[in-house]
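Appendix B.2, paired examples.
Example (i):
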Amino acid sequence: NSLITFILMIVLYFLPLETNTFNLAILILVTSGLRGTIVNNGLAILRVKEKVLMTGLIGISATLTTITPILLLINFKTVDSLMAIALGNIIGAITASALVMLFLKDQYIMSFPLNAFKKVFKYSKNLTFHGIFQWGMVSGDRFVLHALMNKNILGGYFVMYQAPLLVHLLFRAINNAILPKFSKASTMNNLKVSHLMDLKQEIKIYIYIIIGLSIISLSIPFIPSLLPVLSQFLGVYNKYLVLIPSLISGALFMALYYLPMNLITITKGETKNISSSTFLALLLGITINFFFLKTFGVRVAAFASMSSFGLLLILILNRAIKQGNYNKLLPLKSI
């Protein structure tokens, strides 16, 4: 998290951004890094001891991060979209981090074991650029819209983006819950049938949730016509509801991507060349936006986001299939 945050801050420094935009982008980066470092470490402990509490903390962070910008944009028309995003990140990150540290105050030990750091760095250095390119996939569409379209369009896109953001956070939480089983499989010389069946069952439930959300996302554009109250609440943002199916599809592709990614990086312990797949997916999204955004409008940004995550899923899944016996952990047909 620290490496990715530091490198992205340097990249942003050299981009031709307005001063306010640059400052807000740095705030988003730093607070996201804070949440990633403290909350993820905390959740690793809570996952073992207090699963209900872990889910509650994720819910609080996700709610504050997504609801704060929506309320600001709907109630204060003059608020800059990036300012709304930054405030949501700051409030969500600080609240979640403070709660995690409060619940775990007796378990945090401030130390810096050098040998452990060397092992972690050797494993994670290959994932640094993967994380940077993935950050570009998740956030790049809004930077492109900020550069090429007016701020009203960016605001509308951002309000609709809260739906896939919640999906991202939901499946990250679910993935955190099943990660220990992928890790346990890495210590087995011969994968036990009972463990294999248990994990496959959990993965199938995970996939069923994705199917259910896919059906819901396709129906979202029609909801305002059935619920006039919601239509009045959204106001000028109604016309952006058509973006939801593409945006949520991208988030669901990302949710599926976690499964083969767990297999490669956690069970197999292989991190080399992961970033090349992420770079290709990012490049696809940038190319689609560059050539088609100005001609066909904001829907292109949503389609580019969906295409990027779809390509990433295909590339990582293809790598996982080539992992020999390890791919027995994945119900590939179900995926």
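Example (ii):
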Amino acid sequence: SDLLATVAQSIAHSSIPIETTLAALAERACSLLRCGGCSVALVEDATFRTVAAVGTLATTLREQSPIRSTLGVLALLQRQVIIGPRCALVAPMIVEGVALGRLVAEHPARGEFLPSDAVLLQRLSDHAALAVRARQHRAAAERSARDAHALTEVIQRINQSLELERVVAVVAQSATELAGGVGARVLVIEDDALRASGTYGIEDPALCLEVPVDGSFAGACLSGRKPLRVSDLGAPDSPWPWTAQRVQPGRFTAIAIPLLVADGAIGVIVIVGNRARCFDDRDEELLLVLAGHAGHASENAGLFRPAARTMHHASILASNAQALARHVTANAMFADI
């Protein structure tokens, strides 16, 4: 029990790389089970990614394999240790009904694993799963705190200006930085087309400053009034032909977020990334918060502009009236009457 607790504490410790702690777990498992090799794989989307492997399984480190093509899926479904080929044991890592990964041990020194070995491997797997889950929760909390701080700073910057050009420029830069993209466009609806009012980052002829609503990635986001994500903006089979014709296949990933106000959609923020940057749910959540504030800030700035112009004209008229009042006498006023 003390050993298991020590292993779990090590894995849960966020300052130590998870690969290091899980490698130590694999070493301990090999020693306790007296087997030739052990590996730990974590669930990533629909695959197992091997993050730690020792002994005869060392060559599998960093391998990724579809979950459905491995014995790991059977262990996850049955929630128990499975006996595999080469005298291997596969133990599921599950916490609160969530599949986190699997632990594999193979080649026992005595020729076969005993029932007690399966029980011990499952206990190791359970403790590791709890520690990994705790680590994930802690990392998520830290990330949320950083995101909240970043959003607060962005909103303060937006609120410091009532100039529309300044507002959209800040929004484009902030959207790029928050999502880790390479560039962004803030497109505002004008005369049945989307026009770039603010840009930041990469300059590419394919990222046009005027975009039609029909047949474009940004237009689909505007029409649907909901976020869109794509892993290849220029894919030949893209449902947005206007965009696909102008973007080189494999060049950009992208996410689009609508700018919504009470009366409807007034524009779209499009953030592009390189092939190494695929946008996810976290990016979408951050950008939705930014877009919600940006939509109202842009609308307020648009309303402020004509009001400021009217105030300026009124000030000029008042100054002229004062000048006339200083130089026009009563006699001159009634001279022509």
